[in-house]
Amino acid sequence: MERVLRDGFIFLSQNKTLNGLAKRYGLKFGAGRFVAGDSLEASKRAIQDLNAKGLCVTMDHLGEFISTGAEAEMMTQECIRAVEMIAEEKLDSQLSLKLTSLGLDISDQLIRSNMERILTRAKELGVFVTIDMEDEPRCEKTIQLFEELRQSFDNIGTVIQSYLYRSEDDIKRVGRFETNLRIVKGAYKEPATVAFPEKEDVDHNYIKLVKLQLSLGNYAAVATHDDAMIEQIIRYAKENGIGNDKFEFQMLYGIRVERQLELVKLGYKVRVYVPYGRDWYGYFMRRLAERPANVAFVLKGMVKG
């Protein structure tokens, strides 16, 4: 049943008609729990609140799969404004972004130019930028672009997804750059030819990848809400003399808030992924796909609405 729900939400996440309606009618029906408003100003207030509680942040202006250069320019300008806001407001925050929202599917020249503009401004202001990983067909292009950009910018990291067979090799591949990697399970529907179909295998590979990243001496952002996985990584770090400064835990905005604060009290860095913007629909559906239990929060939102 859980797999059916997951596949259903992933299918819905790709529906352009529903995405258009979501933009039109705003953050309703529970989405506000997972998205920090539709504007940069709204995200600032959410980040300030999280920082006051001892939580770090990575912010993301939602949007993906744009089709024109004008749209890519608009998203690029928004990323630059976000970086400037982080610096001006002295927020404890990084920036996350999706390459498809900046022109990845339009042209190699456009995406490279837009990324260089964002990274140049971010480097001037001391802001770290993470390239989010998207679906498997775009994985290789993402890794290649990261490798090119990393030669000129040291304020950049990327994401590795444990449900892909290729991920172990990718960690070793980018490890030479002493890369800061966020390790996630993955939230796209992929064929069994490229991804583990069973959750148990995805989970096993997740722990394997985090341990590999740490064993290489590189920084790991452990993005999970799973207590068993969190405890495994804490135990592994202690047993191998790996300091708390070599890894952090990352969780999504609006999910397991109390656990985030518990980890901070235990002396661990916790970074909250804070998305904002009008183009929230695809992100929201993938969060429901990752954890169908989140549907309960949506139903509560519908009742209150």
TrEMBL record:
Limits of the Proline dehydrogenase domain: 45-298
Uppermost EC category: oxidoreductase
One GO MF term attached to the UniProt entry: nucleotide binding
Keyword ATP-binding: no
Pathway, per record: Amino-acid degradation; L-proline degradation into L-glutamate; L-glutamate from L-proline: step 1/2
Chain positions recorded as substrate binding sites: 98, 286-287
Name this protein carries in UniProt: proline dehydrogenase
Gene that specifies this protein: putB
